[in-house]
Amino acid sequence: MTEKEFDEPGDDLEQFDELEKNFQKVVSDLVADQNLTTFRAEYEKLHQSLVKSHSENLVLIEKCRQLNNDILANANKVSSVMQLSQSDQRTIAGLKHEFEKAWSLVEISQDKEQKSKDVIESLKAEVAKLSRLVEQGSSLAFTQETSLNETEQAVKVLKSDIQNQGMQLEQMKKELEDRKQVTETILADTAKLKEEFNTLSTDSAEAKASEQEVAQKIEQIHKDLNDIKQQIKQSNQTITDNINLIKQKKDDNENLKNYFYSTKSALKVNQEDLDNLRSEIAVRKTLLDNNRTKNDKTQADLVSTKQAIESTKTKFEETNKELQGIAEETAQMQNMLNNEKGIFQDLINQKKQNHKRIAACQQEIILRTTDLNQIQNNNNIARRTIENVRSEHHKLIESNIEEVHETAFVENQNSILLNQAIDIKIDTHNLRGDVIQIQKDIEDYQIKTQAARSNLLQIHEEVTNRENQLSEKTIQLAGINENIKHQASITESIKNDRDLVHRLLQTAMSDNTELSEETKALNLGIQQLKTDIREKDELCLSTHITQKTLGESLIQLTKEKNELAQQVADIDSQNTELRNHIQKSRYLLSQTELQNMKQQQVINDLQSIKYSLNESVTKKSCEITDIHEKIYLLNGELKTGSLAFKNKIETIENLKKELIREVKRHQFLLDSVQHSKALFKEHIQLTKALLMEQGKCRALEDELERPMNIHRWRFLEGTNPDLLQLFKMSMELKNKLMEKLYALQRINLKRDKAKEDLDKQEKHYKWAYTGNINEEMNYLNNVLKAKNQQFNEISNQVALGQSSVDEQKGVVLNLREMLREEKSGYYDMKKKVDVIRASTVKGSRNAQSELSREPKSAEVRFVGGGFSVSQMPSQQPDVKPLTAKSGFSPHIFAPSRPKTVMKKKLPSGWNPQRAQLQPFLPTVSGPNV
């Protein structure tokens, strides 16, 4: 929120004071009318709720200011912490890379130093041996012949061993194919894991969609508020329409009043109006006095509000002091965080216990893996035997080298030995041809093994089809699998808790931004509601005034109605008197007619009386007709008045309905006020959560300043790197074990589905197939049992011959290395003899001085950090091998080397397929597991 938005409540206070003044005026006007007591009570309730909402809005604005400042401070802290963590990670990675480079250079330098030392020692030993051979060449001629015979016999034995080991190589290839199948299964498991990763990514996308739905709901709420505002406007329009109707009816009433006033005396009405005006003037004077007293109170309230503002300033300073105290309390919270870390370690121990329980439930899996472990142990034993054989072979090579050195001098003296050596070369070429033929035979055997593999695959397919039918034997495994699923669900819940704790920092920033936006929206909504409430107050006042005028007009109409009723009663009494008079006159006429017979003398007198009476009767009859017409007119006027009265009653009922609607709206506003209170409570909870996150941020800052875990792992790297590697390996093995568990769980689910499908198919076949299914099933089960027995026998034979195959394979490799080393030593010895012969031609002294001369010391070089790289050997030209073109040995022909490539010997326990280990360095988010 901006400063302008926070400064607006000052203007709102002035407007609120004006509203209170208007309210007091309206209430004072309503006190006189007893008919509007319920309306006045509801109006006062509305005012009280408005006052409460205004006070709560002020509190919310202050809290929003504080929260905005806290959010900005926390955002700055988090950004600084993240920048520091990223810079630290970069520096750590760079230093680690440089450290690894330095160690690699050190290892290379050490290897080079050892090689140079070995070369120097070997050269010294060769010089000493050559000097001895020169002195003892004659005595060793006879021993050379015996050694050559022994080597020929050894070559024959090797040929026989090669033939025997061909079959063993085939078996080894079969084992390699089995291993390839295992690798294919592992690759399938990895593909499944990738699919799971894709599902998790879809879940994350769904979570994002749910967040978008929440945002859409918020927008709908805003739309609902706008709709409510439009409804309020519509209600205002209806109120204006009603006011216009009331005005029209007032005009009609005024016309009626004018008509009635023409019939009545104006003096009485004026006197009554004067009395009413005097009473109203007295009431207005009392209200003015009350308003003056209230204005004095409001001025006193303004003074008190100013004092309250000054007190809030002092409270603000006190809050700053309290914040400093909170900063001191954060240091104490760090200690609490360390205790929580201990609790986290306890949780890790509990997790380990759960893993142990899972291991107990997976005994059957371990029983299946024991066979592989036994095979690996046999391989390790075979490797050890191979190493022992290699050591013996190296000893034999050293003895053969000595013999070769002794025979070299004799070969230079005797050309017969050269011819024998040529024969040996021819034999070696023949051996190479035999080896090529053996390789071709191996390829043929590979083709045969592929055909056998296809047969085995068919057998496996038949076995899998029949294993699905054996559902009764797998019921016991179902209970164990359910336990495994239960434990896996527990582990997943633990992982989910860890992920939730890890995502708290990420969600905190988004929550803070959303809160800031929501507070802005709430402030805008509150301002709009204030304007709407003001408009409604004005409408209520206008309706109240109209109702008051209508009440006065109704009172006047009732009075006029009573007067008309009295007039009608007077007219009725006059009619009754006239009727009685007519009856009397008729009685008199009857008497006169009776007396006419008796008194004919009085007729003349009576005629005059008769004429007078007739005139009076005619006058009275005219008056009676006039009175009847007046009565008819009055009845019409009464009917029109009754209709107008009914219409007014209907309008009053409509107004009552509108009042009920407004009461409902008022209840809705009260509900919104309660909702705002609930939001305020949620705001308090969010502040608590924010304080917790602040503590966590502070703890992370302290960890960045004083990282404990990094020092511990660095200490392990410095003191016991092997133990650190073991930790890494154990963590990776645990992860792999969990992956295997998930894969096993999926396999079990697939197996259950396959069982259900198989049961359905069996039911279908029982109904559809007309033959004897049971007999065919028994026949196929017998065939399956026979094939299973054959398969078990083949596997037993493979297991029995595996150890011998490994041993013989190692022997073959050792023999190949021995042959190559003998050849290289033989030709190196020839080269040295040629060099010695050439040196005798030039001068034995110079040759001996050059041979006795030690190699120059290599220059010592250093790399940054104080590590010496190596003692680099001196750059001397390599001694070229003697060929037929050289002038020293025209009769010696260097044999062509075979194009076989030597395989790299890996150390024991090395797995080239295993991926490179990740650096086990903890970061802010936690240790890299």
What does this protein look like?
- This is Flagellar associated protein.
- Keywords: Coiled coil.
- It comes from Trichomonas vaginalis (strain ATCC PRA-98 / G3).
- By secondary structure, the chain is mostly helical.
- The protein has a domain at about 10-105.
- The protein has helices at about 5-30, 35-135, 140-265, 265-360, 365-415, 415-465, 475-600, 605-705, 710-720, 720-770, 775-840, 845-850; strands at about 860-865, 865-870.
- Helix 3 (about 140-265) packs parallel to helix 7.
- The radius of gyration is 59 Å and the shape is elongated.
- The model is unreliable at about 1-10, about 855-900 and about 915-929 (pLDDT under 50).
Largest beta sheet, briefly?
2 strands, antiparallel
Instruction: Compute the average pLDDT.
Output: 69
Helical proportion?
Answer: over 70%
- Number of E-state strands: 2
Low-confidence stretches: 1-9, 854-902, 916-929
Strand content: under 5%
> What structural category do the secondary elements indicate?
mainly alpha
Distance between the termini: 42 Å
How are strands sequenced across the largest beta sheet? 1-2
Q: Give the helices and strands as they follow along the chain.
A: HHHHHHHHHHHHEE
Subunit organisation of the chains: single chain
The best one-word shape is: elongated
Q: What is Rg? A: 59 Å
